[in-house]
Amino acid sequence: MVLPFGFEVMHTRKSKRWVARNLVHAMLLCVVTAHAAYRPTVRATVLAPPQNQKKPIATPAELELQKQIRELELARILALLRETAESARGWTDAAAGSRALTQIADLVWDLDAVAARSYLIRAWETAGKVDDPKQERSRYRNDSLKAETKREVMLVARRRAPELAERWLKEMAQEESERNGSNRGVFDDRTARSTVLLQMAMHTVTDDPGAAAVLMTESLSDGVSFGFQEVLIRLQEKNFELAQQVFRSALARLRTAGMMDPNELLILYAYLYTPGRVMAANTSEDRGTFQLAVGRTRPQITAAAQLNPALASEFLLLASNLLISAPLPGTTDNPALTARTQLSAISAIMGRLSEKHPQAAAALQARAQQIVADAGFSTAPPLTPPDRPVPKPGENSDDYNARRVDALEEIAENERSSMRRDIAFANAALATNVETYQRGWQLAGRIDDLTLRDNLRNWLTYRAALHAVNSDNLDRAYELTSKDTDPSQRAAILIVGAQRLLKQKDKARAAQWLLDARTSLKKAGADDSSVHVALGLVAAYARIDNLMAFDALSDAVRLMSKTDLSPRDEDRAPLARKFAGLTMPPDFTYGTEGFSLRAAIDAFEPTEFEDVLAEIRKIASPELRGQASILLSRKYLTSMAATSTDPASKAKHRSNE
Amino acid sequence: MIFLRLKRVTFLLILALVVGVLQTDYASGQKPGRRTRTIRFEPNVHAPELYVDKLTMQFMLVNLPGAGTKGTTWRGEYQLYFIPEVEFEKNKMSNLPAPGSVTSRDLKPEDFANKILLAGGTFKGDGLATPRSRVFLRPSIPFKARIPDSQRTKFAKLLTVYSVKIYDAKLKTTLYKSGVWIAHTFDQDEPSSSSEKAVARTTVYSSFFVAPDGDVYTSQWRHETNDTTW
Predict the structure, then answer these.
(1) Contact between B215 and A135 using a beta-carbon 8 Å cutoff
(2) Using 50, 70 and 90 to split pLDDT, how confident is the model at B160?
(3) CB contact (8 A) between residue B1 and residue A390
(4) From CA B51, how far away is CA A253, in angstroms rounded?
(5) pLDDT tens for residues A97-121?
(6) Are A134 and B230 within 8 A, CB to CB?
(7) Is B26 within 8 Å of A140 when comparing Cβ atoms?
(8) pLDDT-wise least confident of A144-153, A196-205, B103-112
(9) Residue A555: φ, ψ to 5°
(10) Across the interface, which of B13, B171, B217 has its CB nearest the CB of A397?
(11) Is the ipTM of this complex over 0.95?
C-alpha cells in the first residue's frame, strides 16, 4: 500500500491496523503542517509564545498527540533515508554512495538494526569499488579516496558492529599483502590499512583515548607510519601514560620485527624531540638536504623526551643498534639510496646519542664512516637556483622573501617569449607575502595576457581581503572587496566578513554585507566556487534572517543544478581561482568555514524540515540530493534525541551531532 | 602537513617561502622517469649516426576534463635548441640530474652561449574532443645539416623550451605551464634499442595532461597519440 509523501506499508493485518490508527494522527499533523505553511519568519511570529509568558503545562492528551506526531515524523525520516539508500545503489560516484550508506546505517541503527547492518555491508562493498583518481604520485604524501572512504565505514562499524570491523581489517591486511608497496611518498603511511587505522585513531582519540591507543598499536603491525606521530601527539595531549605505552609498543615492534627503513626511526625521533616536525631521510646526492613535514598547527605538548628522558634514552640505544645491524648498503639493490637514508638517521640521532650513550655513539660513527662512500654524495658545491637566492646572515623571512621576489622579477624581465614572460611575472606576484599585496599587484600589472593579469590581481586581492578579515581589519577588507572584480571572490570575502561581524554582534552591518554578497553572487557564473559561496550565504543568512536564508537556499539549489559539483563537501571558503599550473602558495582560505552543504542545512531549525526538504528535492544531482537528505535527517534526529526525555535516546544520538 | 625540502643551514629563514614552491612542485607532478634504458656514458664520442636529417616535434595534450566542451582551447610557444656536449659539460651542467628528471626547471637557454636554435614557433588549437585533434606536429626540422660534424657527439643534448596556455571550458580555468626539457640526441624510449646500442632520435616529445582537479602534468616521454591516459 502506498501512502502520500512516499510512505509504503506492507499488506498485513497488523500494518492495516497501524494505518487506520495513524491516519487519524496524520490528519491532525496535516492540520498542524498546513497551519505552519507560512514562511518561516511569519511562522516564528505566529507560533512563538510571548517571552514573559509561562509555558502552559501540557495535558496528557496533548502529550500523547505530541508523541504520535513525533512517531509520524520519525517514520517520515526513515522513509526518506530508505529512499536515499535505495537511490545510492545507482550512483555513479562510488565514494559518495558508500559515504551515504554509511551515514544512513549509523543514523538508523537504533531504529532498525537489521536494515542498518545491510546498509553498512553495502557501504563497505561500494567502498571497494572506489577508484583513486589516476594522477601523478606525489613524492611526499598521497591521499587515497578509497582508504578515506573505507575509514568512514570502519569508524561506524567499529562502534556499531565490531565483528564487521575486525573482518574488514583482516580483508585489508590480505589486500595489502597482495599489493606492491612501491612508489610511496616519503611521508606516506606504510599501508592503506595503517592509514585507515591511524585515521580512525585520530577520530576517536578525543572521546576514547584507550580505543585510539589500541588502533595505533594495531597499525604497528605494518610498521611505523608517518601518521603515527601525529596521533601520538594527540594521545599525549589526552593521556601521556597511554602515549608512552603506545610508544613502547613501537619500540617493541622494532626490536622484534626489525627496522623496515630508517624513516621509522625518524618518525619516533620527531615525536620525542620535535613534535609536529618530522624529517624524512635524505635520498638526494646533496648531503646537506633533507625533507621536512611541518604541521599547520603547532602541537601544545612538551616534548616527550623532556617528560620522560628514560624513554628517549631507550629509543636512542635501540635506534643505534638497529642502524649498526642494518644491512650494509653494498648488499642491497640500491646501495646509494640505502646509505643515504641510513646516514640521515645516524646524523639525526648522533648528537643526543653522544650525550646519553657515548660508546654507542662511537660505534655508530664508525658505521657512518664505513658506509659514507656508498652514499655517493656529490662533491660539487650545490647549485643555487636563480629564483632562490642564498639567505644572508641574520636576514628575516620577510626580507628574504622581498629579495626573492626581486630575483623572480628579474628572471621575468629577461624572458624573451611573451608567454613565458607572463608566467614568470605571475610566479613573482604569487611569491609575494599577503601583507605585500600591492607589490603583487604591481607585478601582475606587468603581465600582457589580460585574462591572467585580471585573475591574478583578483586572487591577490581576495587573499589580502581574507587576511584583513582575519586580522579584524574589516574596513580594509571592505575596501579591498571593491577592487576584486570576481563576483564569487567578492561575495566570499563579504560572507567571511559578515560571519566576523555576527561574532561581534553587529547584525545590522552583517546584514548589509550579506546583501552586498548576494548582489555580487547574482553576477557570478555557475561553478563549484559560486555554489559554495551561495551555500555560505545561506548559512550566514540563517543566523539573522530566515526568509532571506530560504531565498538564498533556492538560489544555491538553482546554481547547483547547473554544475557538476563534487559531493566532497568542502566547508572552507572556495579558492575561486580562475587559473592553475603556476607556483601556488598554500591555501589561504584555511581556517574559514561555513561554505558547505552541511553548513547550509545545519543552519535551519529542525522545525523547518519540510521547507528545507522541499528545496533540496529540487537538486538535480542524485548524489547531492541524497547527501542533503541525509544531512537534513541527521539534523532532525539529533534534535529529536536532544529534546527527548529519555536519557538513553539522548545518549544514542549524541554521536550524530 | 606541509612538506619541505630544505638546506640544513638555511631552513629556518626560508621555511615560509619554500612551502608554496615545493607543494606545487610535487602537485604539478611531472612524470617520473620510465622505460629509460641505460646507455653507457662515453664522453665526446663522435656519433654522426645518431643525427637524423630531419627532426619532428610533437606537442600533445593527452587529455583534459573539458576536452569535449565547447570553448576549450590551447596554445603554446616553443624553441628547440641543440647544446653541444662540450658546452653542456663546460657549464657544469653535469651536476644536474639526468635528462628527463624533474629539476630541469632551473635551466635556461641563456645558460649556454654556443647553442644552435633548431626551431621555434607557436601553435594553437580548439575543437579538442579527439586525441588526434590535441596533437600538434612540427615536422621536418633540419637537424644533421645544422650541426657541425665535430659537434655530432653521442652525449650532446636537445633542449626544448615550452610554454602552454590551456583554457578548460569545463573547469572554467586557464592553465599555464612553462618549462625546459633536456633530451639526448638518441632515443631512450625506442623499444627496439638494446641496453647498449643507442638509436637516433627522430621525434622530440612534449606531452601535457590536465587532471580533474586542474593540476597540469607534463612529460617529455613518448606518448601514443591514441592513448588518453596518463
Answers:
(1) yes
(2) very high
(3) no
(4) 57
(5) 999 999 999 999 988 899 999 999 9
(6) yes
(7) yes
(8) B103-112
(9) -60, -45
(10) B13
(11) no
Interface of A with B in 378-407 (CB under 8 A): 378, 380, 382-383, 385-386, 388, 390-391, 395-397, 400-401, 404
* CA pair distance A171, A166, nearest whole angstrom: 9
pTM for the whole thing?
0.74
Provide the 3-class DSSP secondary structure of residue B207.
strand
Nearest 5 degrees, angle CA A150-CA A202-CA A602? 75
**Nearest by CB: B163 against A185, A383, A417:** A417
The per-residue pLDDT for A139 is 63
pLDDT (mean) for A302-318:
91
Q: Which residues of B touch A426 (CB under 8 A)?
A: 176
CB-based contact B5 A385, cutoff 8 Å: no
In this complex, do A391 and B10 lie within 8 Å of one another by their Cβ atoms? Answer: yes
Q: Which three cell numbers stand for residue A312?
A: 628517549
Interface contact flag, A136 B17, Cβ < 8 Å = no
Q: Return d(Cα A133, Cα B170) in angstroms, integer.
A: 18
A138-142, A217-221, A314-318, A593-597: the lowest-pLDDT one: A138-142
Residue B16 and residue A294: Cβ atoms within 8 Å?
A: no
Residue A576: left (phi > 0), alpha (psi -120 to 50), or beta? left
Kindly write down the DSSP assignment for every residue of A593-651, as one continuous string.
---SHHHHHHTS-GGGHHHHHHHHTT-S-HHHHHHHHHHHHHHHHHHHHHH-S-HHHHH
For chain B, the domain total comes to 1
Residue B34 lies in a domain: yes
A161 and A168 Cβ atoms separated by less than 8 Å:
no
Q: For residue B28, is it within any domain?
A: yes
Torsion angle of the four alpha carbons A124, A126, A127, A128, in this order, in degrees rounded to the nearest 10: 90
pLDDT at B26 over 50: no
Residue in B220, B223, B218, B209 with CA at minimum distance from that of residue B100: B220
What are the φ and ψ backbone dihedral angles of A109, each rounded to 5 degrees? -55, -45
Q: Cβ A423–B163 below 8 Å, yes or no?
A: yes
Which of B6, B15, B215 faces A290 most closely, judged by CB atoms? B6
Q: Which residues of chain B neighbour A388 with C-beta distances below 8 Å?
A: 14, 17-18, 21
Which of B4, B15, B17 is opposite residue A291, by nearest beta carbon?
A: B4
CA distance B49 to chain A (A): 33
Contact B160, B58 (CB under 8 A): no
Element (H, E) at A531: helix A528-541
Mean pLDDT of the B190-205 span:
71
Closest B-chain CA to A576? B173
Chain B residues with CB-CB distance to A278 below 8 A = 1
Give me the helices (H) in A471-506, please.
474-481, 487-503
Among B12, B14, B159, the strongest candidate for a mutation testing the A interface, having the largest count of A CBs within 10 A, is B14
pLDDT at A395: 82
Confidence of residue A17 (pLDDT cuts 50, 70, 90): very low
* Strand A579-580, strand B173-184: pairing: parallel
CA distance A546 to B179: 52
Q: Is residue B228 part of a domain?
A: no
Closest C-alpha to A492, from A602, A600, A592:
A592
Domain that holds residue B123: 2-219
Asked if residue B15 is part of any domain, the answer here is yes
* Cell numbers 498546513: residue: A34
Among A136, A395, A404, beta carbon nearest to B29:
A136
Average pLDDT estimate for A466-478: 95
Q: How close, in Å, is residue A23 to chain B by CA atoms?
A: 50
Is the CB of B95 less than 8 angstroms away from the CB of A134? no
Q: Taking CB atoms and an 8 Å limit, are B31 and A289 in contact across chains?
A: no
